[in-house]
């Protein structure tokens, strides 16, 4: 990024802080968080296991480091304003206003928020980047893969109740998102959007356990990502036209490779246990885009561990699979176009995650923890798909 753009971002940051601080008679509370982490990757493949990691054989203190500052102004009578700024190592620590919303708390049971806030796609999405909030060195990438639409502009309702000794909380959200998605094969950002996002989640807990489930649906809008996917089938479509395919058949294929107007569906479920220093958590997620050649993705992780005074050790098994299903290609009658469709589908069935890991946490300070994480996995879609990831660092809050 150019220096002028960086200066502009800091000017915007300063202006937002001044405007926030100028709210009349408001009590403003500041808090923050951060992670400084060194990461080393060893892989047999020419590709990184997943995004936001350093290159093979390189020790990086940037890719998984992040800082955040949040300010909340109490405006009185249940009304508050919150803004959160983050500086992510993957974005060269450029400052971004990640959240900015107004909340009204009716009572101890209901709260409405309007603005830009977290899109809790999965259970821990709202504090996914706050390393201190969980015991893992990094949240299992099989589920927490790092989606670009992890924030949303809209309205949400949070509820909390206690019924017969059980704590029951829900979240309901409606909103929209537009931005860029990085295409793994090219490393280029392509634009896309999600409209009419409807999200719901439920959590039930008591004493040492909790169970949860949630999900959302939304409709993808137009953007350069659609044009990029269409461009991938141009060579094969041209060959098909030269061998008897009709323009209508080519358009039928083009419609199946694009996002625009298609519904995205995500859901997850799991549990979390903290009993007599024994720890265990499990989360299962499933998501896909309707009426496209994109693959359905199923992901899960299971962790077990134990807390020894100021230390926590966790072992985990995790997996992410892209499910091959040629049902969408059956309607494509021309053999060349059908082969192109199957090839497109097969490309997105690659890059699985399958492995085991261990995390160690040491709370040496009331507001800081040292962590070590080692993960060994295999992408079974490649002959040379074995890799290992080691990381160590500091998570803190203030």
Describe the overall structure:
- The protein has 398 residues and is an alpha+beta fold.
- The protein has a single domain, classed as Porin (Beta Barrel), CATH 2.40.160.
- Helices cover 15% and strands 52% of the residues.
- The protein has 5 helices and 17 strands.
- Strands 1-3-4-5-6-7-8-9-10-11-12-13-14-15-16-17 form a 16-stranded antiparallel barrel.
- β16 (368-378) and β17 (386-397) form a beta hairpin.
- It starts with a helix and ends with a strand.
- Residues 1-15 have low confidence and may be disordered.
Distance between the termini: 29 Å
**Strand proportion:** over 45%
Which descriptor suits the 3D outline? globular
**What order do the helices and strands follow?**
HEEEEEEEEEEHHHEEEEHEEE
**Low-pLDDT windows of residues:** 1-15
Number of domains: 1
Blueprint of the fold:
Elements: H1 3-21, E1 27-43, E2 59-60, E3 66-76, E4 79-88, E5 95-105, E6 110-118, E7 151-163, E8 166-182, E9 189-206, E10 209-220, H2 224-232, H3 234-241, H4 247-257, E11 263-275, E12 278-289, E13 296-308, E14 311-323, H5 335-347, E15 353-365, E16 368-378, E17 386-397
Antiparallel strand pairs: 1-2, 1-3, 1-17, 3-4, 4-5, 5-6, 6-7, 7-8, 8-9, 9-10, 10-11, 11-12, 12-13, 13-14, 14-15, 15-16, 16-17
Helix pairs in contact: 3-5, 4-5
């Amino acid at each position: 990024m150019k220096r002028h753009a960086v200066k502009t971002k800091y000017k915007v940051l300063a202006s937002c802080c001044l405007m926030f601080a100028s709210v009349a008679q408001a009590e403003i509370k500041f808090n923050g968080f951060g992670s400084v982490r060194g990461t080393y990757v060893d892989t047999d493949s020419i590709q990184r296991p997943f995004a936001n990691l350093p290159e093979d054989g390189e020790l990086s203190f940037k890719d998984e480091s992040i800082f955040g500052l949040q300010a909340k102004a109490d405006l009185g009578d249940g009304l508050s304003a919150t803004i959160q700024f983050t500086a992510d190592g993957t974005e060269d620590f450029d400052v971004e206003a990640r959240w900015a919303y107004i909340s009204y708390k009716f009572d101890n049971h209901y709260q409405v928020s309007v603005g830009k806030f977290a899109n809790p796609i999965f259970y821990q999405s709202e504090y996914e980047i706050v390393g201190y909030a969980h015991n893992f060195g990094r949240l299992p990438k099989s589920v927490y893969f790092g989606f670009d639409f992890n924030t949303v502009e809209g309205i949400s309702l949070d509820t909390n109740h206690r019924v017969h000794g059980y704590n029951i909380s829900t979240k309901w959200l409606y909103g929209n998102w537009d931005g860029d998605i990085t295409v793994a094969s090219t490393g280029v950002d392509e634009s896309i959007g999600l409209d009419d996002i409807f999200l719901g989640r439920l959590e039930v807990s008591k004493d040492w356990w909790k169970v949860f489930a949630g999900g959302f649906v939304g409709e993808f809008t137009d953007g350069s990502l659609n044009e990029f996917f269409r461009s991938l089938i141009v060579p094969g479509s041209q060959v098909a036209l030269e061998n008897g395919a009709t323009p209508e058949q080519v358009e039928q294929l083009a419609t199946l490779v694009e996002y625009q107007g298609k519904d995205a569906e995500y859901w997850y479920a799991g549990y979390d246990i903290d009993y007599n220093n024994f720890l265990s958590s499990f989360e299962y997620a499933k998501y896909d885009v309707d009426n496209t050649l994109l693959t359905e993705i199923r992901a899960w992780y299971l962790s077990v561990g134990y807390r020894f005074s100021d230390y926590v050790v966790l072992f985990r098994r995790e997996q992410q699979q892209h499910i091959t299903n040629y049902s969408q290609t059956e309607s494509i009658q021309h053999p060349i176009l059908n082969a192109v469709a199957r090839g497109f589908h097969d490309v997105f069935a690659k890059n699985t995650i399958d492995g085991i890991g261990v995390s160690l946490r040491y709370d040496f300070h009331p507001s800081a923890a040292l962590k070590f994480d080692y993960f060994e996995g295999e992408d079974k879609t490649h002959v040379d798909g074995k890799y290992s990831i080691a990381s160590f660092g500091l998570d803190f809050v203030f």
